[in-house]
Here is the input.
Amino acid sequence: EETTSRPHIVTCTAPVNIAVVKYWGKRDEDLILPISSSLSVTLHQDQLKTTTTVAISTSFKVDRMWLNGKEEDITHPRLQSCLREIRRLARKRRNDGEPDSTESTGLSHKVHICSVNNFPTAAGLASSAAGFACLVYSLAQAFGVEGDLSGIARQGSGSACRSMYGGFVQWIMGNRDDGKDSIAQQVEPESHWPELRILVLVASAKRKPIGSTSGMQTSVQTSVLLKHRAESVVPHRMDKMIKAVQKRDFAAFAEITMKDSNQFHATCLDTYPPIFYLNSVSQQIIHLVHRYNGHYRESRVAYSFDAGPNAVIFTLQQHVPEFVRVVQHFFPPDTNGEDFIKGLPV
Ligand code: 2P0
Here is the structure.
């Protein structure tokens, strides 16, 4: 019958999020449960984002998935977790007898997924966060399921749960073994701090040498600093960061952001064998930011680095033009940013 064989199609976008209190380390690898909470800022929809189209149809023979135009292995366990959980919710909704839910939640429907990023994949720019958030949201739309989906996105990639919400988002680690309390929550909407700006300084668009998943696994096994961080540093830092965001206190926000990025990279160095995500350009940017802030005796700019050398800069709208000029002065575009740190103009 035409109504059941015609594919039901939805397209959604999800933005990248940048953690300012970073997630690093799992206590459960399958459910993706973290050893500490984290907090991030979700970018706007029109910036770094994933766009995913999901089609469901009874005429499709098998589930299939394409990423940036190339077919991916649909049997990937994390992809399977997300598909299974969405279908479970769809079945539950149908069994609960919600009106109009039978047509779109047929269990005989197979799914075709097409996903594209508008930025380099796996260059430490949180592509998996936007990717799985978008996948889960699109699947939910296609199968007609609602509610908090962050616990499902989490099972695709930990950081993805935070991209399910806009603005300032915390991922509460939770303490249950089944993970039901390990979910994302919005701390403040994006409208809360309209002057806040994020700049991405691309030091390298190459794939990172060590993926986050295996990197954090080795860190959990070998780093005593990571254990200390999770138990004694992050809980306190989460409280301070939430207060800084609520008060729009940029100086406090900047200091915690930079210290947390530095401690994350310190735990990478404390991992055995050690993991290096920063390169010489990253280090030059760190120095530049501290000299810039030192010049004004005030934290006007903050850096943050994830599992790669690219810098994410947080600042306020009024400082963007000058800071961009400073960056362009020290990293002229044709030099790839190498060996171009000089003195700050005074
Ligand atoms: C974060 N990162 O909080 C931290 C900071 C990288 C450094 O979340 O294994 O890709 O899929 O849960 O989410 C990268 O880890 O790892 C990450 P999985 P994910 O944004």
